[in-house]
Amino acid sequence: MSRALTTLLFSCILFSLSVSSYAQTCNSYSFSSNRVYASCQDLPVLNAFLHYNYSSSANTLDIAFRVTGVTTSNWISWAINPNGQQMAGSQALVAFQNSSGVVRAFTSSVASTNIATLSESSLSFVVSNLAGSFNNSGDSGELTIFATLALSSGMTTVNQVWQVGPVSGDNPQSHDTSSSAANMRSVGTLNLLDGTTTSGGGTRSKLRRENVHGVLNAVSWGTLMPLGVIIARYLKVFKSADPAWFYLHIACQTSAYVVGVAGWATGMKLGSETSVHNYPHRNIGITLFCLGTLQVFALLLRPKKDHKYRLYWNIYHHAIGYTVIILSIVNVFKGLDILDPDKKWKKIYTAILIFLGFNAAMLEAFTWYIVIKRKKTGSDKYPSYENGANGANGYGARAQQGV
Known about the structure:
The chain contains seven helices and twelve strands. By secondary structure, it is an alpha+beta fold. The two termini are 22 Å apart.
C-alpha cells in the first residue's frame, strides 16, 4: 500500500478522534460529591453547563450550574426570570470565592439592569440546599452553584439567564454589557419535561444544526458509501479500470467516512442538548461510527492477495461493509422521520436510492455476462490486482477467486 494512502487513512483516524473529543459534553461529567443529575445542558456561551433533576409531582428543580475557565476574581449566576428572557426581573443564584478563600452562595432578585453590584435578597420562590464550590486547576478553575428550587405548580418551561462577571472587594461587579459580548446572549428557555432549549438564536439555530446533521449523514453514510461499493464491485470487471477502480473506491469511502464522522459528531452534540433521545437512531449512529472506523483500520491491515488470510479478510471486510450500507440507509430514513421535513426530501433520497439500485442491478447482470463470456472463450484471466483485488466492498474476480 502506498505511503500516501496510509497517510490519508491515518489522517482520517486522527480527524475522527478529534471530532469525537469535540462531541463529548456535559453528559460525560461526574461530580466529585457523587451528585447525580438525570439531565444536563451545554449552554451556548460563557463556558456554562446546567445539570438538573426535575420532579413534576413535587414541583422541585434540583440544579448544579457550573462554569469553567473562571478565576477567583469572577462571580457566576444562574437565574429564572418569570417576566421573560432578560436580566431585569431575574431571580438569581449567585456564587463567588471571597478573599478568605470561602465560596459564598446567595440569592439576589435583580430589579434592573442598571445596578453596580449584586446584593443579597430573597426570591419569589423558595430556595434550599444552596451551596457553591470552586475547583482550581492552574490559571483557571470551575465554579459551581448547587441549589433546590420550589417552583410554582405547572411551571414546566422557564426563562433562564446565566452570567459571569468580575469581583472587586468581595462584591460582584457589573458584567460586560457591550453589544458584541457573550453576556448579552446568555438567555433562553428550558423545557423541564423534555429538555429542549432555545437560546440566543432560538429554535431556528437548533433547527439549522439539525438540518446540517441530516444533510451530512445522508450524503456520506447514505449516498457516498453505497456509491463506493458499486465502484468496487463493478468497475473491476473492466481490465482497463485497474487500478483506477481501487483508488476511486478509496477516495469515495474515505470522503464518506470523514463527512460521516462530522455528521455523527453533530448528532452527538445535538443529543447532549436535550434529555429526550431517540435511542434507536442514536445507537445505530454510534454503531455506524464504530464499524466505519473498523473498516479504516481493516484497510491498513489488508493482507496481500495471495496471503493465506486474505480470504478471511475479504469475508470480514465485505460483511462489515454491507452491514454499514444497510444500517446507513435505515438510519437516514429514521432521521428523516425525526426531522419531519417537507415530504419532497424523503422522496428525493428515495429516488437517489432507486437510481443507485437500478444501476447496480444493471451492472450486476452485465458483470456476470462478461464473466461467463470470458470463461467460455477461455479468456477469464484477470490482471493482477496488486492495488486492490478483493480489497473493497465488492467481490473480486469472481471466476478466478470464487469470492
